[in-house]
Design a protein that fits this description.
Distance between the termini: 37 Å
Number of helices: 6
Largest sheet: 5 strands, mixed
Structural class: alpha/beta
Strand content: 15-25%
Strand order of the largest sheet: 1-5-4-3-2
Number of strands: 7
Length: 193
């Protein structure tokens, strides 16, 4: 990452407020983790729900537990061998923006089409209208939190961005997929969802 970009990135991240508890300060000192690493994790990292209303963030080879009610970092640790030559250590993550509809009518029409097609999923009449059905099985195990994919916060982000960009958007744009092509996604953790 260019030096001027790194400096700007650190300055913007350092501006986010994060309080540290005694335990967190001791663990960070013991584990050689800077506070800005926690701020980056909270701002750019992968967020998971934790126990007792807490949140777990993973980013740049650092995991930290955060209590949003008190705005306090609880504890943090480094993930095994995070690569210094890949992932967020090299490239700033690509943050996908939410699609903006051109008008309220367009948004309303899209919601109507989604609802109509969803209702057809389980009807025999609807099944005959499908032109294809793809089933994708996505690994969402703990190893997918590793920060070694350039342009993504973690491996799972890389998978989802690749699917959205390469499997859905490109094929729709080229006219190779349409509203009657069904995609089912099975997320594999400890159990399939």
């Amino acid at each position: 990452m260019p030096a001027n970009r790194t400096h700007q990135y650190a300055r913007e991240t350092a501006a986010s407020t994060l309080l540290s508890g005694v335990h967190d300060r001791e663990r960070r000192e013991e584990r050689d983790i800077d506070k800005v690493d926690l701020q980056r994790a909270r701002r750019y990292g992968m967020k998971e729900d934790g126990k007792k209303g807490r949140e777990k963030y993973t980013y740049g080879g650092v995991v930290f537990i955060y209590d949003p009610r008190r705005n306090v970092a609880i504890t943090s640790w480094k993930i095994g061998e995070a690569s210094k030559r890949s992932g967020t250590n090299v490239t700033t993550p690509i943050m996908l923006e939410k699609h903006k509809f051109e008008s309220k009518e367009q948004k309303k029409e899209m919601k109507y089409q989604h609802k109509r097609l969803t209702l057809l999923l389980n009807e025999e009449e609807g099944k005959s209208q499908w032109t294809s059905h793809s089933v994708l099985i996505i690994d969402m195990s703990g190893s997918m939190r590793a920060d070694d994919v350039n342009g993504a916060r973690c491996r799972s982000d890389g998978v989802w961005m690749s699917l959205a960009r390469d499997y859905v958007k490109d094929l729709l744009t080229k006219g190779l997929r349409g509203p009657n092509d069904l995609i089912s996604i099975v997320a594999m953790k400890e159990e399939a969802e």
